[in-house]
Amino acid sequence: MESEYTKERALGLLSAEGDALEDLYRHADMVRRNHMGEEVFIRGIVEFSNICLNDCLYCGIRASNRDVARYAIPPEEIVDIAHAMKGSEQTTVVLQSGETPGMADDKLGSVIRRIKGETGLAVTVSVGNRPYETYRFWKECGMDRYLLRFETSDRALFARLRPGSSLDERLRCLGHLKDLGVQTGSGFMIGLPGERPEVLADNIILCRSLDLDMIGIGPFIPHPGTPLRGTKNAYHDDPEMFFKALAVLRVFNPDAHIPATTAFDAVFPGSGRDLALKRGANVFMPNNTPVRYKKEYLLYPGKPSVDESPEECTEAAVARIESLGRIIGKGPGHSFKKRPGRGL
Ligand code: SF4
To answer: By percentage, how much of the chain surpasses pLDDT 70?
Structure first.
């Protein structure tokens, strides 16, 4: 019943402490098990370009950060990376970059087409806002899924942190993707400066109302090369809030794929993603970007595994998942919402 998924309930759960907090984590884990099973899907990220025309205040690769050596991995090399992923436990390639509308959209279409045709891997794209026609073109090329985080549901905060862009525009793009039948993912940052628990609850409710196939969230971590250096996460004195947010997100979105994002490891080195998998998450996304590029794709400081090869990242992911007694997901791991008889 929709009346179970209110802002008041979300706020109540976000304030859980002691036994109530343990109950919340147990419940989130049970909801994950009942709706998504014991499988953890491994989806390999390829950060194929750190060139971005935008200047989001929180982001390490924002256009104004002159300390970043910009790169764009040649198409042939991206396809080679996808070939190398085939045969590992990864069944999806996630193509991620900064936002450069129009600059290389045709080339990206060719890359998607080749990866689908030559490897059969599922293809997820995450390159920001685009017109409907571009999303349609990429879908025709074989794109299965798209990730486009809204980052915050607070319109004023969004406008301040993402100059030249608006929450409404972001939501319009998400609507286009859903209209096209692309499996659609979004999500938000936890603890942006100025965020209150009410906004966090609204973020969770917005994810539910968007009926998303995938939802990625992670703690805000101030980057020294951005205007937000020197600020603190809104929950810096209560980092448990990061896991509470994840658990409530799972309770409110039982059928969505939810990754244990790397930002959890940056805040809780070595254990963050394991805890996330125990508290609602069911996807792990090892980094398949070659080491020579990876260091220049730092959205936030403390990104884990920057010196590890794609193979090492994938092996580590498998070991962590198995150590939790979970099963490696087989097949593409498409949205559970796409099962016969279910709408988008
Ligand atoms: S968050 Fe995305 S769009 Fe914003 S500056 Fe960073 S890469 Fe560019």
So the answer is: 97
Beta bridge partner(s), residue 125:
95, 146
Residue bearing the CA closest to ligand 1, atom 2: 98
Q: E strands, 201-273, where?
A: 214-219
CA distance 144 to 41: 15
Centre of ligand 1 to C-alpha 30, Å, is 35
In contact, 288 and 310? CB cutoff 8 Å: yes
Kindly report, residue by residue over 188-237, the tens digit of the pLDDT: 999 999 899 999 999 999 999 999 999 999 999 999 999 999 999 999 99
Ligand 1 atom with the shortest distance to the CA of 97: 7
User: Has residue 341 got a pLDDT over 50?
Assistant: no
Residue of 284, 283, 288, 285 whose CA lies nearest to 336:
283
Please check the confidence at residue 342 and state whether its pLDDT lies above 60. Answer: no
Distance 249 CA to ligand 1 centre (A): 24
Helices 105-119 and 132-141, packing angle to 10 deg: 20
- Which whole number is the average pLDDT over 253-267? 96
* pLDDT on residue 344: 32
Going from the Cα of 54 to the center of ligand 1, the distance in angstroms, rounded, reads: 6
Cβ(56) – ligand 1 distance below 6 Å: yes
**pLDDT tens digits for range 87-144:** 888 999 999 999 998 878 999 999 999 999 999 999 999 999 999 999 999 999 999 9
Give the distance (Å) from ligand 1 centre to CA of residue 61: 7
User: What structural domains and CATH numbers belong to the chain?
Assistant: 2-327 (3.20.20.70)
Return the ∠ at Cα 17 (arms to 12 and 22), rounded to 5°.
100
- Which position has the token pair 């073109």? 137
Among 45, 56, 150, 167, residue to substitute to test ligand 1 (most atoms within 8 Å of Cβ): 56
Q: What angle do CA 239, 245, 249 make, to 5 degrees?
A: 160
Kindly list the distances between the CA atom of residue 141 and the CA atoms of 74, 138, 241, in Å, as whole numbers in the listed order: 18, 5, 40
